[in-house]
Automatic annotation (TrEMBL):
Superkingdom of source: Bacteria
Record flagged with keyword Coiled coil: no
Name of this chain's protein: Flagellar protein FlgN
Biological process, per Gene Ontology: bacterial-type flagellum assembly
Keyword terms, alphabetized: Bacterial flagellum biogenesis, Cell projection, Cilium, Flagellum
UniProt record similarity statement: Belongs to the FlgN family.
Keyword Transmembrane: no
Annotated Gene3D superfamilies: FlgN-like
Length: 173
């Protein structure tokens, strides 16, 4: 009788899926919130031309990357374990939907919130990318103006009129 009682709990592992998924989503939400704040600060610095301040974001970004990697590892472990137990393991959403109704009550809301945050992060990242691209274009144009002394090069030929500004409206042209 004691052998059977000892063997049975080891053969049927019990996993508190709701708590594990909830913990993962809580960690992810925290990282996403911090990343949104960082992207906002970064965008403000870029827009204000405070390029020296951009170096200060490097350490925070590295820490957030590490936290995101931890969430990814935790997610992969969770889904791997679910797969081994025969539960849907395609995504955290599918795993949460497979749980009994009593266990998935708040999980759906948390999963939806994490997805919305992820989409918002994509938008903020794209916005920052556009700001950086516009800054690079502006700097490239400034370098070209400095390099050419502000004089425009003739598009066709080497006409003297092409070097004078306002050639279309000047009486001499």
């Amino acid at each position: 009788m004691t052998d059977q009682a000892t063997t049975q709990p080891a053969a049927t592992p019990t996993t508190d899926w709701e708590a594990r998924i909830s913990q993962l989503l809580s960690n992810l939400s925290s990282v996403q919130g911090d990343l949104l704040a960082l992207l906002g600060e970064k965008r403000e610095s870029l827009a204000a031309g405070e390029y020296e301040k951009l170096d200060s974001f490097t350490n925070r970004e590295a820490e957030l990357v590490s936290r995101l990697e931890h969430c990814h590892t935790e997610r992969e472990q969770l889904l791997g374990e679910a797969r081994r137990e025969g539960l849907p393991a395609g995504s955290v959403r599918s795993l949460a939907q497979a749980l009994p109704a009593t266990e998935r009550s708040d999980l759906q809301t948390s999963v939806d919130q994490a997805r919305k945050q992820s989409r918002l992060l994509q938008h903020h990242s794209l916005t920052n990318w556009v700001v950086v691209q516009r800054t690079l274009l502006h700097l490239s144009q400034m370098i070209e103006i400095i390099a050419t002394g502000g004089r425009m090069k003739a598009t066709y030929g080497t006409s003297a009129h092409a070097n004078s500004s306002g050639a279309l409206v000047d009486q001499e042209a």
